[in-house]
Every structure is written in C-alpha cells, then in structure tokens.
Amino acid sequence: MRRYSFDFADIDELRSYYRSQLDPEGTTDRIIFPPEIGEGYLSYYKISPEVFLLINNYRANTDIEYIRKPIAEKDIILHFRKYALDHQIEKDEIVSTYSDSYTPGNMRCMDARNGERVYITKGAEVRSTMIVLKSAYTKPYFLKRGDMAERVDSYIRYSHQHINKFYLSYRQSQLFDQIVTPDFNKIENYLYFVARGIRLLETFWKDVLKWDTENNPFNINSAQVGNIYEVSNYLENHLQEPFVGVDQLATMALMSRTNFFNMFKEIHNQTPLEFFNNKKLESSYNMIFSEGLSIKEVMVNLNYSNSSKFKKAFYDRFDVYPDVSV
Asked: What is the rounded CA–CA span in Å between residue 264 and residue 255?
C-alpha cells in the first residue's frame, strides 16, 4: 500500500509534495502517476489567493491510503465526485473507503479542522474535483449574512449523514465532466479550469442559500436517482425502437409519472422524449460522419420514417446537413 500524508494549509506546498512523490520530472500542470501506482493524473489550480481547485482523474494500480491531517483554520472543502465512498465518522476524523456501489455523482462538504483517512483500493477509478475555500474567503460571506455560517455548518453536517442521497445537478454534472475529463486538444491554458471551477463554486453557494433542514437536497431518494439513470441507459440502448412513452418509463423506474418526469428533467435538463431524440441524432451523426453510412442506412438502423423531418432535425441540432457529399 502507498501512503500519502498531507494537509490543505498550503496548496502550493501540497502541489510540490505530490510532484515530488509522483512526477518529479514533470513540467505540465498535470502531475502524472507512475505506472506502478496509477494511470492518470492530479492537477492543482489557484482560482484566487483564497480559493483552490484540485482535480483527480486516475485508476489506482495499487492500494493507496491518503491521510489528510486536520488544520487549525476553518477552511471548507467541497468534494464533487463520480465514484462512491463509504464513510464512518470517528471522534476527530472521517474514515472513507472506496466502494464499487453505483453513484450518479454527489458532493460532500467538509470542515478542514477535521482530518480524514481515505482508502483507495487497487483497480479503483477515481474521478473527482475539490474546491478548497480558505477561511479568509468565507469570512465576508458570513459577515454579510448572519445566518450563513450556521447554514454552512448544517450543510457540512448533513452532507455526511446523507451523502448517498445528495446527487449532482445537471449543471454541476456538466461542469464536473468539463473539469475532470476534458478534451485536452481544445484547451488553451489553465484559465479553462479556473473559469469552470468558479461556476461550479457558484452552484454550491446557491444550494446553501436555498437550503434548510425542512426542504433540502439530502431528502432526495437515492434509489430513485439510480432508477432514472437505469431508464436513461435503457433509452440509449434502444434507439432503434420507437419511444415507449413516459408512462412506461415511469413504471420501469418504479415512480409516479409526475415525479419521474420532473426528476428526469432535473437530472438531464431535458424531457425523456428530448433526451431520446437527441441521443438518436447523436448516434446518426456518428454513423454518417464516422462510419460512412448513407442517410437511408441510418434511417433504417434508427427507425426514422420521414427523411425531410430527419434532415431538418439533424440540421437544427448540428448546423450541418446529414450528407457527407455536401
């Protein structure tokens, strides 16, 4: 097992620590894992002197233990992730263990004065981003609103008691993917990550402002969220068939029609029919421009019956006509 012990008191020092441990000859923003430890990278960006963005994107090739030591300052750590951890709250630290259970992505909020031990097992896929808010950054928020400190404290407390019930919103999920699994061929510099980190941070403050213990994001049923994603996968795997209808999809998800429709739209930012039609169009685009299929072949494969409507929808979606000869 590899062990790494650190704290969040000085992020520049933390970056240097991991550079020396993993990638001493590296010259890019990314700190690349050596093959015996993992496949992937870590990245650290300074959004401002009091706000930092940390990115994890790797597959562990050995067991890893991270020991985050507590610090004196009440810094806040926002941990957005698309992998599962099982948590145990002990006297003065959190003990977190990698889990292969399903998660659509979630976020936890931590007080840096509490330490943590994280156990990542060999073969684990770790995709996460942390935003560290130094106490000098949060203090003006707390002074401006008398109840803000109490709200954040409640948010921290509930985010661990109900961690499996708090999933990323569509906007958070979209920003997360852009930060953690970006297309590096289209990225010019670190400002790409800083800009998206700021927007992701804004979603946290909006959640805190609208949150209270009677009506909060942790009340969401995690099983239903999982069912929504199972339905999404079903639609993606049955694009060649007619759309089955919201009623049948809601039955598959074991939910009422209204609850299913509203939660599906909140997660995907589209209605089920819009999601289905857009996935069909994306598939048709790949068939035409990557696989070289004709329009007729695509229409047969994806059960399109009207060529005029298909071409119009394709153009509206991609701003190009579905004809490689054009």
From this structure: 11
